[in-house]
Amino acid sequence: MSTYRAPLRDMQFVLRELAGVEEIAKLPGYEETTDVLDAILDEASTFATEVLDPINQSGDREGCTWNDGVVTTPKGFKEAYHAFAQAGWIGLPVLPEYGGQGLPQLLLGPTLEMWNGANVGFANGPLLNQGAIEAIELYANDALKQVYVPKLVSGEWSGTMCLTEPQAGSDLAQVRSTATPEGDHYRIKGQKIFITFGEHDMTPNIIHLVLARLPGAPEGTKGISMFIVPKVLVNADGSLGERNDVKCAGIEHKMGINANPTCTLNYGESGNGAIGYLVGEANRGLEYMFVMMNAARFSVGVQGLAIADRAYQHAVEYAKERIQFRDAASRDPKPVAIIKHPDVRRMLLFCKANIEAMRALAYVTAASLDYAHKATDENVRKEHKAFVELMIPVVKGWLTENAQTVCSVALQVFGGMGYVEETGIAQQYRDVRITTIYEGTTGIQALDLIGRKLIRDMGASATKVFKQISKFAKELESSENAEVKALAQPLTDATKALADTSQWIGMNAMGDLRKAFANSVPFLNFFGIVAGGWQLFRGAKIAAEKLAAGENDPYYTAKIQTATFYAHNILTQYAYLQKQIVDGSAGVIAGDDEMFEVERRALATA
Amino acid sequence: MSTYRAPLRDMQFVLRELAGVEEIAKLPGYEETTDVLDAILDEASTFATEVLDPINQSGDREGCTWNDGVVTTPKGFKEAYHAFAQAGWIGLPVLPEYGGQGLPQLLLGPTLEMWNGANVGFANGPLLNQGAIEAIELYANDALKQVYVPKLVSGEWSGTMCLTEPQAGSDLAQVRSTATPEGDHYRIKGQKIFITFGEHDMTPNIIHLVLARLPGAPEGTKGISMFIVPKVLVNADGSLGERNDVKCAGIEHKMGINANPTCTLNYGESGNGAIGYLVGEANRGLEYMFVMMNAARFSVGVQGLAIADRAYQHAVEYAKERIQFRDAASRDPKPVAIIKHPDVRRMLLFCKANIEAMRALAYVTAASLDYAHKATDENVRKEHKAFVELMIPVVKGWLTENAQTVCSVALQVFGGMGYVEETGIAQQYRDVRITTIYEGTTGIQALDLIGRKLIRDMGASATKVFKQISKFAKELESSENAEVKALAQPLTDATKALADTSQWIGMNAMGDLRKAFANSVPFLNFFGIVAGGWQLFRGAKIAAEKLAAGENDPYYTAKIQTATFYAHNILTQYAYLQKQIVDGSAGVIAGDDEMFEVERRALATA
Question: Domain named Acyl-CoA oxidase/dehydrogenase middle: which ranges (chains A, B) (predicted)?
Fold first, then answer.
């Protein structure tokens, strides 16, 4: 059976050495960060290991059940949610005035990672809850805030995000749910699908954030408003009143994340509509949603990383125990643990190198989120905001795509035992597959990266990043550690290739947008591979310095070996990706739709 | 819901134009091949579509049940198996003297593909059955042949292959089951796991081919013998007698292929041992198994192709129906079918190009199997045998690895609908995951390719293939079709890179075997990418000739566009793979096992 252990050593290293938590602690409001850091990581690790992990596999097996609108979560989930709330984990980034602890985003990196590594089905509750809290905190009026935020933070109630409709998935412009004004509130009608924890038995009330259209609202994205629609109406004194007209019509039978219900919610099915309250201004719902999306996309990126890490550590355990075949380098015919075999080492290193690059990039991006919000110097804020905007689609898209490959490789280490559900690794493989889909598919992330981030500022923010990486590659050049020095050339080459490819996309966007977008997903992965390598190599450089200074920690040696593997086995993809994008994009858009049908026709002469 | 349609046009093209079915029909015994070809494809397509496909999704959902040693298959499977047998499909490649049709291996390509595309859970029965028939036909004495082969071919009984034991997965040298002589038979004791259709309710008898050790047999691979162990003993008159002592102790709960039971079989649990009959000579069981393995590995490669094709065609259907977002090339704000979007086209083309390359390579390899068996000229037989030996691990390894990526990409086209089981695409994603594991993991295929095929003859067979490809690339050079001409350079470059890399591996194998094997799986994929491109480009060249000759078939235009996509978006990986193998292999084997643990340690100072 699989168990989760938080990668505390690497988390601490990335937080302290790469993401600069000490600097974050100098930002106004974050002064206590370093004082509480160790305690938070230790407590989170304990909570993840002792409370969430034990109900991970059982939650997957049991799943959720629906019965006439009532959804029952797996055994232990209700209790775990209360324990989670009571420990104060919901309020970690929420302002103290609403009952939170007001800690920086940077700390969300490791804590989110631990919840998701230990139990992704459970973690999806707090993840969406966080979005609802943020939406209300940022955009609702004070009265609404006072009613809803404290109880969402305390965990007494929970929140959801209701965006998707059958005809409106990635394309939210197609939202059709309606909101009709009635006194101080609105009447909401429509159907929302794929709503995570849209109905459950963990809290007595559920606060839905719902996108809907007001009468006469403009078509498309500019006519969508955001509403609070509680499952149970709240009386003036804050107590629970009547049931609102929102009903769960069913839950999905999914490939994974079985422990969290994915609900179809019908609003206003049996009357004038469910009662809802407008958040912020009319017709600005999608705009609000986009602001929150950075956090949600970051979170799903980390979710991918977390599941991948769980799969990897399980594969390491298995590879140490499973005995098959003799050692190719030895004359002894006795079979050895498969971790001794080069192919298994390759698979484990592939996982390790990707995971450490992913973690470094995610946490560094989280630190930038904090600077973007809190730096006192406006220029610093602006600079980090630009970096965050650029990196969020990469963190969401690349981390999750990568995570799926890592989980598949980890499963492969198990051989036949990987395919049976008993070992648990199959669950990670099934669970992780959703991460490239929800909160915007990788295709949507890539469109965002190219269309909104790269092209909009004519590549200015991207170019800045490429210059930073090239500058760092020069620093590697002068390392006294031969292995670290050898990282310079691959990073320089890859960064140049990425910069050239970005320019090629920019040039083509001025001509044929379709051609510029044709290989947008490979471009996003390209960006991730280079940016992840950059951060991993920063770690290798620091590790070499520590070793040179006499710190005899195998963690540092391993960091350099991991970076070396990444340089030759992962980063080298640049040579292929550039060719693919530059030479291959025209071919993607050539041809008609009919070409996908021809192979299934009978031969004319037959 | 997903439905399967056989890719008849492409199958016919590959059989006739690439694999040269007309030439195969000149081999002794295969004279009727071309006469029956169309009828067989049409009938197989009808059978796959009308009998197997309708119980594919229901079979997955229902799964198999175990109750005190009795296994029940999903609704309709028993009837389908009888219909399958009655239609003569089991005996397709079996000699007429045993009730078969004696058709070439080449025809197994499309028929196997159709069974597996329509219903992989079902198809696993005949696939293993085929192995059992072949083993008995090739190695057992006449008496055993007469008792078992006709009833296996008629489908009255069914067969299994019992190799794996808990401690002997990939490493069959560790087999511990025992066989003790007793008169004209043996008493078998031991446990076999992961036995496909090891117990079921489709036929009254099941014939197990079992690997076990005789008393005093040498250790390792040279002390394993093969036995026939029927579930029900057969009386002298061929009627069924007493139950043999083999019992199904349970079935696995798997991620996919739920319609076929995967059984734990206990032999001789309650007495002196199950009665078994020696096949061929003592201690040569593994050698026999290896001869049959070519066919089994070929079949699993085709299985991967088949599942990938089903996933792809389903994605095409969905992409034509699903409306989201406006066309980036148009000013019309109306949302369009997602097949219009460049990223979706890229995904569909990725699937199409890979699938057509995979199919071409598989069928061409099957044709070589026929030459290797039946050519009258010994040199021709030898030449094709060498080609087959080289290509089997590639067909098994590359096709199945590729198939998993294709299924994942196809699922991605569905967005959120891909993750719910309702659409059916999730089943392909779960089903296909086994194909890189059973009949030898990709790691085992890669070891075979490098260790047994590449290194053993000092690269002679591989070099021959590279020369053939280079020669063909030169022919492309002189094509009058500009697109086809443009395929020459990428193929030349990729083949040169592959040849250089092969040489690098050969050189290193003389020094450090571990280094030579470190990137064996990437090398196998490299080989597949180039060989698949070669065969796909052969198709493109022929298509161009047909078009030039005035045949106005969109299938040909699409073939050239598909090859062009492959050249730039898939074949270009050579630039990365060569670097990875040559520069990255040392890093794979550097470091100790401890390096995979360090990230989970707490920080010393914390």
Answer: 161-266
